[in-house]
Amino acid sequence: MSRLTPMAALALLALLGLQGCASQRSESALDDATTAFQKVKDDSDVLRSAPRDVIRAGESLARAERLAGYIGTGSDVRHYAYLSQRYSEIAAEHARLALNQERQTKLDLERQRLQLALREAKLASVQQQGKFIEAQIAALASEQTDRGLVMTLGDVLFDTGQAELKSSASRTVLKLVQFLQLNPRRVVRIEGYTDSTGAPADNLKLSRDRAQSVADMLVDLGVDEKRIEVEGYGDQYPVEANASERGRAQNRRVEIVFSDDKGKLAPAR
Question: pTM above the 0.85 mark?
């Protein structure tokens, strides 16, 4: 039986060393792939989000394990172990993205729920405010069957013989603006009246100018001018006799005639 030469022996040792190193690398690759696969296989979120990737990871790992039993297949073992580990990583990433999307969807739904609750609360607040304003308007108005709801602004809101509104009129006019904002289909007719003192032509102009002053303030405060009609009647249609100062003061007035809630306004006088 022939003995190996020193050179042949060294070559054989080198070959065995290389095979040992390759075997160690294969085992390490298999261990890493097995650990990664076990982690995703036991994760219900991953199985639900990326079942196909988990299956591919398992198939690749099983092939790597079968090849590990054959000499000279180390590169193939490492290749399929690498594929298995990558499929496991991809499955885990898909699951992470899916969970993030689910969380975002839940956050969006919660945000929408809160926004809806805020809108409902705001609507309830507006409705309560509307009832309060309507009650105030009703307290300032009198119901007249032939013309609808009428609110009277007395002579104290104007200086004698002047058409400019006093600052004391602001609160009353502001309530009127709020009422119209809360009832966007309603329109109004603003009617001016005077007592019988002075020439009829002057009275007619003064009554018209006073009604227009009220209309201008409504427009300045945001009411669409298309919702406002203006009329001046001078000393016509007195509500009291002009024989006394008290009666004349009652006749110097501006009346706000409201339409119904559908926007139908009674005909002008």
Answer: no
